[in-house]
Amino acid sequence: MKKILALVLTVMMMTVAAGCGGGATKSSGSGSGSGGKQITMGFSQIGAESEWRTANTESIKKAAEAAGINLQFSDAQQKQENQIKAIRSFIAQGVDIIAFVPIVETGWDTVLKEAKDAKIPVIVVDRDVKLSDDSLYAAKLGTDSLSEGKKVFDWIDSYMTKENKKPRDGGSQFNIVILEGTVGSSVAIRRQEGFKTEMEASQNASKYNILASQTGEFTRQKGQEVMESFLKSNRDKIDILFAHNDDMALGAIQAIEAAGLRPGKDITIVSVDGVKGIFQAMIEGKANCTIECNPLQGDLLMETAKKVLAGEKVEKLVYVDEGIFPADVAEKTLPERKY
Ligand code: GYE
Question: Which atom of ligand 1 is nearest to the CA of 49?
Answer without folding.
Answer: 10
